[in-house]
């Protein structure tokens, strides 16, 4: 046991991107304090301060990339995987802020708190990818979850928004108890909470197998809730529908990216020697998730609920790569989540422009005839829908190819075939939106205003550019996410 | 000395009671309390395991869970109050605005 305090292990560069975001979150709150009813200007700066924070964190992230360091006696790590996840989270946060600029002041006057919480959520999400210890992982998970509970209930005048927050909070707290119990049982079974330590103990066959397996099962349930795998998905459509749309857009990508990154790291770094025990259950979960997500999405009248079920289906696709157990799966998942950030936030941005004041939702009927009334919006939505359905040459296609390749690399050919079949089912509801836009007549002529603003247009432009460019030139981005994870003993 | 195994059984029982409570109770406040019971059973597991293995990871984990549980209650009660102001109810069976 080491008794001296070794400061050389306190390498703060590892968490510098996160620290940058925290500093800017404090700046946002400070600016908010100076706003008075007579002088509201500082409050109007908060989105731009937050956006500056995201850009600054991205620059810091670039400057720390290309290294592989651990921190705090192996509680956190900076590797290509963590850096890649940071980019995805920052992208989602930046787009989410652009969507919020005009929307949030309409529903809640406390905009400063909103942007501060958004930045702190992003901090927690980034720590998820860096965690190399179950304690760090649990804390990161709670940091971003607690902030998201508040964000989803931000519209305190809408019973739908507070109801979404209550549902998310109750089920979230319930699932984090499972998550913590899973971590506790793994600790009880192996005697350590560090990923490398767990891998060492299980490799040597010294773990208490029943405790370890029970712990893995509970941990999977906890992750399953966060990434919304069936049967832990019941909160997803309700929260996605009830939460303010910019929050939904941000959290649909951010939560999924962060939780999947941590899921991959736990499974591939800490528990690779229990692969035989968890691969088949995860494969079955992936099949049920893809089935329920795709078939339920077919029946939705609300566009936000349809996108919620589609996000459940996408969780299933990503899980196929994890069930394969190959290290390429982690790279494929990162690349896929990167493309998903553009496509999904773009789709939610269009829904946000379509929704009526105060309704916080848009029905399928709202899209009818959009091709005639608002050709640009319809075109953008069509790109996002094609992208999400996995149509080449858009970004979603290569992501899916990589995911299913990883499943095949792990020897799960049947799983890859099932995933392709469900992708075909998924195409039906994405293409139906496009058909509604171009081949149906507008239902209600009076309600055909579209709420656009300059920040929203910028966000949409970035999203559509990403969806097309990453799809047309995938090589560079695939390299950026290749061989990303620092594996145990690798 | 009481074997560690007994503590693990006790905490599993407590965890199950908490989980069943969350699933069956209708008042949101009682559900909060059941979640707290689940988290405390986790703490018991961690402390028992920490004694078994003779290291401090479990103890530190317990402190973190306590801090998180406190934050969780603060956020949860705030959300509950904002919901109660709009609807005048803390009954989960009356939460059904959002469905298909």
Low-confidence stretches of chain A: none
Oligomeric state as shown: heterodimer
Please provide the count of β strands of chain B.
0
Q: What's the overall average pLDDT of chain A, rounded? A: 90
SS element count, helices of chain B: 3
What distance separates the N and C termini of chain B?
Answer: 56 Å
Helix and strand string of chain A, N-terminal first?
A: HHEEHHHHHHHHHHHHHHHHH
Strand percentage of chain A lies at under 5%
Percent of residues in helices of chain A: over 70%
Radius of gyration of chain A: 22 Å
User: In total, how many domains does the architecture of chain A comprise?
Assistant: 2
Structural class of chain B: mainly alpha
**CATH fold naming of chain B:** Helix Hairpins
Helix/strand-derived category of chain A reads mainly alpha
CATH top level label of chain B: Mainly Alpha
* Strand count of chain A: 2
Task: Report the average pLDDT across residues of chain B.
Answer: 91
Q: Which stretches of chain B of 5+ consecutive residues score pLDDT under 50? A: none
**Mind describing the biggest β-sheet of chain B?**
none
């Amino acid at each position: 046991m080491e008794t001296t305090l070794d400061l050389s292990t306190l390498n703060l560069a590892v968490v510098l991107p996160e620290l940058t975001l925290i500093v800017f979150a404090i700046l946002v709150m400070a600016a908010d304090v100076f706003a008075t009813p007579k002088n509201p200007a500082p409050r109007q700066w908060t989105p731009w301060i937050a956006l500056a924070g995201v850009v600054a964190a991205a620059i810091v992230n670039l400057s720390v990339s290309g290294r592989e360091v651990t921190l705090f006696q192996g509680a956190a790590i900076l590797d290509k995987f963590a850096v890649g996840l940071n980019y995805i989270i920052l992208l989602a946060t930046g787009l989410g802020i652009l969507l919020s600029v005009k929307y949030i002041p309409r529903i809640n006057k406390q905009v400063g708190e909103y942007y501060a919480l958004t930045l702190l959520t992003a901090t927690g999400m980034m720590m998820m990818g860096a965690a190399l210890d179950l304690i760090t992982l649990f804390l990161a998970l709670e940091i971003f979850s607690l902030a998201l509970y508040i964000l989803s209930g931000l519209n305190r005048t809408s019973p739908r928004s507070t109801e979404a927050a209550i549902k998310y909070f109750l089920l979230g707290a319930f699932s984090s108890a499972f998550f913590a119990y899973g971590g506790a049982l793994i600790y009880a079974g192996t005697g350590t909470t560090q990923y490398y330590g767990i891998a060492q103990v299980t490799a040597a066959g010294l773990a208490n197998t029943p405790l370890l397996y029970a712990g893995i099962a509970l941990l999977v349930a906890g992750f399953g809730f966060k990434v919304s795998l069936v049967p832990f998905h019941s909160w997803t459509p309700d929260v996605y529908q009830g939460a303010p749309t910019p929050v939904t857009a941000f959290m649909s990508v951010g939560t999924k990216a962060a939780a999947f990154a941590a899921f991959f790291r736990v499974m591939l770094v800490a528990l690779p020697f229990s692969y035989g025990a968890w691969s088949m259950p995860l494969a079955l979960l992936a099949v049920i998730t893809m089935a329920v997500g795709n078939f339920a999405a077919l029946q939705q009248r609300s566009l936000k609920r349809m996108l919620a079920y589609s996000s459940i289906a996408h969780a299933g696709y990503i899980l196929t790569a994890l069930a394969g157990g190959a290290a390429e799966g982690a790279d494929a998942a990162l690349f896929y989540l990167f493309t998903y950030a553009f496509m999904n936030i773009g789709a939610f941005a269009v829904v946000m422009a379509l929704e009526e004041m105060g309704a916080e939702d848009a029905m399928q009927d709202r899209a009818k005839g959009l091709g005639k009334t608002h050709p640009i919006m319809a075109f953008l939505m069509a790109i996002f829908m094609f992208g999400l359905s996995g149509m080449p040459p858009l970004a979603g296609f290569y992501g899916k190819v990589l995911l299913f390749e990883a499943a095949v690399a792990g020897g799960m050919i049947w799983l890859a075939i099932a995933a392709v079949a469900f992708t075909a089912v998924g195409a039906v509801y994405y293409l139906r939106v496009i058909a509604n836009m171009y081949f149906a007549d507008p239902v209600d002529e009076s309600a055909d205003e579209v709420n656009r603003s300059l920040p929203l247009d910028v966000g949409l432009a970035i999203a559509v550019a990403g969806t097309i460019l990453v799809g047309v030139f995938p090589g560079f981005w695939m390299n950026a996410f290749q061989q990303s994870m620092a594996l145990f003993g690798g | 000395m009481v074997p560690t195994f007994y503590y693990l059984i006790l905490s599993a029982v407590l965890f199950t009671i908490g989980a069943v409570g969350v699933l069956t109770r209708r008042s949101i406040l009682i559900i909060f309390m059941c979640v707290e019971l689940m988290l405390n059973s986790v703490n018991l597991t961690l402390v028992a395991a920490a004694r078994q293995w003779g290291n401090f990871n479990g103890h530190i984990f317990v402190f973190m869970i306590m801090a998180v549980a406190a934050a969780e209650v603060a956020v949860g009660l705030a959300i509950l109050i904002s919901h109660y102001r709009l609807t005048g109810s803390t009954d989960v069976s009356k939460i059904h605005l959002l469905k298909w």
